[in-house]
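Changelog note: in this version the structure field was regenerated for every chain. One regenerated record is shown below for reference.
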Amino acid sequence: MAKITHNNFLDTVDEVITNATKAGVLHLHAEGSGLNGRKIKVNGIESFHFGTTGYLGLEQDQRLKNAAIDAIQKYGTQFPLSKTYISHPLYAELEEKIEAIYNNPILITKNSTLGHIAVIPTAVRDEDAVILDHQVHWSVQNAAQFLKIRGIPVSLIRHNSMDMLEDRIKRLSGKVKKIWYMADGVYSMYGDYAPIEDLISLCEKYPQLHLYFDDVHGMSWKGHNGSGYVMEVLKELPEKILLFGTLSKTFGASGAVLVCPDRKLFRKIKNFGGPLTFSAQLEPSAVAAASASANIHLSTEIYSLQKALQLRINYFNELLSKTNMPLISKNDSPVFYIGTGLPATGYNFVKRMLDEGFFVNLGLFPAVPVKNTGVRITISCHNELEDIKALVNALEYHYEKALNATNNTLERVGKAFNINVKPTTIKEKSDSNISVTYAESIENIDTDLWNKLLGSQNMLNKNGLQFLEKCFSHNDQKEHNWNFHYFIINDQKDDPILATFLTSGLWKNDMLAPESVSKAIEQDRESNPYAMTTKVLSMGCLFTEGSHLYLDHKHSQSEEAIKELLLRIEALGERLRTGMCVLRDFKKSTALAEVFQKEGYIPVSMPDSCVINNLDWNSEEEFLETLSSRSRKHFRKEVLPFEDKFHISILDSPTPEKIDTYHELYKNVKSKNFGLNTFTYPKKVFQNMASDKNWEFIELKLQKENQIVGVMFCYKNKEGIYVPNLIGMDYDYAREYQVYRQLLYQTIKRAKNLNLQKIDLGFSASFEKRKFGATIIEKQAFIQTSDNFLLEQLDMMRNEIS
């Protein structure tokens, strides 16, 4: 199945951001000859600015501007030297002021991203471990990746899950010296807080636990002297805590600040902290502006600014409480998130607000789960109360319009975020003239219609699906029981527009991961067979590949039919309580990609599919002529010389004893194939093959040893498709006698002898299959998860192993 790799992740993010850019809501440019903080000009429209992270508005304070200008005149635009050698004349004064704000030793860094890269690898020792809140800022997660090179364990827990954190601490406590938990003070998307009191309690219970906070979104608008949210809660900073604040954002200047109560550790970080040593220091203008801001923070004026901001925050909260809009996290921070669920709704909503003259931010994957798209609104001292009132009026008006325009509902948004919502007056469209047939068995679907639409694909005809339903029901182990779900969507003339089937069942999470990750997880499964597994609703099933969707693309209602299917899948997933939905086996660059993404699915690459369409030959020499010259050489060297080593049999009904042998050979291959890491199929599947006239077995027996060393399990689709679905081999002989290649060749010969038109060779081993004339088809899937934790956990394991 689909593989999450670094390149794949980049491609996925690229597609998501590209779609949002096409929708006109990202990669925008501010216009005009100046900025004042209250308004910003975008696309020729003068908009009220509700997207800044300068919450107190200090970036427009004249004192900071004057200080920066004066510094440039006196000291130039930059001081291009590392601070390890010498700091420019303004640095010492700023450091003294920032230390007074925190009443602790501090280090100033170029920005928080470089700061984390400097501090984390220095503070965390080889004998330590790191646990990350999975919503901690990307800059922290990125810096933590450097630790894995040194073999330091780095893992994720779900957002603010103290139970999961404590469990992880217990598991690590006897293996490491210090355990660092890294989190944000104020989280940048939803504006919610870290549970600091609970974390301090854990520190007291487990002395190994140390805390690392990124509080850049809590800076200035909260805390004594604007020291931030974390300091507001703690008052004093214990030695076991490292704290990052910022001189950017609300502070109004540039740079970031590390607060380190442990003076010995402080010295080590200062003496060698990566970018602290080898990067240029802050420009004189930035240091001067920060120093001017520090003067404000050290005066009583900071509390007046905090109070002014809090007045605006409270007013916005009050107005929002009188609306139906789903505020995802209600608190007193200046960050607000209104959920839209579907990306399509988020795009539409943000675009409407921009056109109305209100600049707000779009929250989308990977910053949030794809189905948790929404609008992030920030409040600052630049915003007047009448601006906020106008904003709420516009939000309330356009939110309903955006839902209707994208066939979304408030109830669906509530389910996506797992929050209660007020009853809505928004109604789903009722003028649709399409009809939906749903069944939970192929027996309840018209045979001729189904076979006409999907029967020529792989083993998707009625006989094949009857076989699968029989095999994957009433089994002892839960992973071997699948539920089947069939959909056919017709127009008002009862002509089919769409047909597909899905299965729900237990998957290994690492089926989306590289082989190295699967191998590591399988070690955990030796004691816990269901470690890292999820109930998944998937188009098709794990036994089939190819096109699982029939769609009449030329039909005027094709897109409507797709969206109706996705609604039905969403409802089905809720009923079955699945953790992931997978739409799979689409060709790369499918025309449906944009529709799927707007409806909350992200694209991921799959292994290539391999098919042989050319069986128009009548002899071995004619077959060779269909191959490339290099493949012909390969065939004559690696395949043909070994054919007479085997006794080759085609069996329709093997004996129970042979089925036992075949099953063991299959398990040999399965135990080595982590590229498609599924659960091992039970013997019942193979027993059913032996009694089903649509299945046959290509057996390779070494003549010299009289030993069965290979078997191909093949389905004969009456529509002219040969499907070698599974393979079994004895690895004691596989390499010496080229068993795999011989099985491929005998499969091709058998399909030709049966006068079939196509061979579905399936996924994996595409390099080998290409040598036999297979056409390689790039495939992709589209997945939707309830949150990003699963994907981020696997990606972190991939990085650690690589």
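Spot check on this record: The longest strand covers residues 496-508. The domain at 435-603 is CATH 3.40.630 (Aminopeptidase).
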